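Allow me, if you will, to draw on your knowledge of protein folds for a short while. I have a record of one protein: its chain in single-letter code and its fold written as discrete structure tokens. I should value your view on which stretches of the chain appear to form regular backbone elements. Thank you for your consideration; the sequence and its tokens are set out here:
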Amino acid sequence: MCGIVGYLGPMNPKDVIVAGLKKLEYRGYDSAGVAILHQGKTKRVRAEGKLKALEEKLQAEPFDGHLGIGHTRWATHGGPSERNAHPHQVRGISLVHNGIIENYADIREALLARGAEISSDTDSELVAHLLAEEVEKTGSLLKSVQNILDRIHGAFSIVAMWDQDPETMVAFKDGPPLVVGLGDNQTFVVSDVQACLQYTKKFIYLDDREVVHVHKNKVQVYSAKGEPLTKKVVEVDWSEEAVEKQGHAHFMLKEIYEQPRSVAAAMEPHLDIDKFKVRLKRVGFNQPLERLEGLDIEADWQNTQKVLKGVERIFMIACGTSNYAAMVGKYLLEKIAKVPVETDIASEFRYRDPVLPPNTLVMTISQSGETADTLAAIRLAKEKGALTLSLCNVRGSSIDREAHGHLYMNSGPEIGVASTKAFTSTLTVLNCFAAAFGQIKGTISPGEEKTYVQALLATPSQLEGVLAYDKYFSETAEVLKTYKGFLYMGRGVSFPIAMEGALKLKELAYLHAEGYAAGEMKHGPLALIDERMAIIMLVPEDGLYEKSMSNLEEARARGGKIIALGTGEDEKLRRVSAEYLPLPKALWTVNPILSVVPLQLMAYHLADNLGYDVDQPRNLAKSVTVE
């Protein structure tokens, strides 16, 4: 959640750190601060609220050093205030921290017993006290970090500096991401590569309980036991331009409009267009992550087929929007590949002692690849002996590194907290995965496989047409916001899309919204319906059309305002709806990709009309890296 930027190099640290923190604003935060060397000592400036408040304080502050750290804080221990803002300082030690120290109470009690003066309500400051005690004994920041690593428990990523060693940063992690950026005679330590993409494309991803020592131009990573490690340098191909708004009012709107391109990029690696075949490429089951790009495609596909042929059951584990994508994946895989699939919320899966039968594949989905509960779930699955497969957007992320096999969304950086293009890219990859699995299991014919591929290939251009509803929702938001609530309903693959649509409205517009399986209307939701309730019905032309129409009539009879999404010029659906939005005629497998886009636009325009921060909705963060 929190944003971390550390810098050592010839540029002005203030400018580099503030620019980096701005790139991380999407994560959500309530205070910010920097600590930068000046005249041999670390000068700290902090402010409650947005970065603008910090920038105003920094305007008159000179800095002559070339080392500094910065932070945007999401309040956990201690409320949002300047005294609780990072960096924390104790006797020459300055540090920033992302995560939660679970044994903070014991540490605090011990420190107070030793006479420590604690100036904040945070768990983070306690680590600074521990380091200050150690550095006074050892005279080495690196040695001090190594000495306290076993004494702090929880999920954390920490970057520290010391006045007495003005050319050194030391960072360490156990849980939340921490990445080292390698530039020309300069080094960055950040919680997200986007913070320093404008300066470098070369990164080292730290694994849990690793310590990085940055001194002058040298970077060395150590294990928790102090052993030097050789780490792979990963080159990230995201351009700085790709993370800018490119003229759109918000990142979210830009990312909605990028979906034709991101969906095409998601399917491209796996489709043989000339033969209308699906081949999962560079999955790399049981291959080292760094070898994926160099894998022989045909050999890898042969190995993937061999591995997946023995799979008899699939568990799909995810959180939030990714969980709804997994639910769509369940329909796809069960109907196409005839393999039983269970979907589970990661935070429930990891604590319910799940039973994983032999020959089970556990598939985890996470845009960031850093979601704490999903990461814990894949580790649990591996402990129980299951084969694992990850679907992430960020290559080299923690979940990606943990998995036996690897798939990628390929949607590029997604800045808006509410996921859009990563969701549709996920649905696209799941379409490819289901068709490939069906081919491997022999449950689909070559003709059926061709039909699935043709449907996917048509999707990007169909999405271009669906984006026309941007104007419609911009114009109708003024009326829609007057409704007391919104019920989203669908059947089959449209049911998870109904829940995703409701989630988007809750996330962005803070309005009451619920997603239901339309067949459940008689089991409760009908009681909510009156003339002040908007009903968003997903009624595509598929095998459940008539059933969905019956549910629509039930809602209409109770006075609900029906906004229906259907297929083409469906006059029957248009007659019974207050508003009818036709979508392109498509195969049932890709209908979810098309139908979710109007729901994204609806949530976006309602939130914008209500004056809310679309990219950074309250109380939410892009990547939930702690429980």
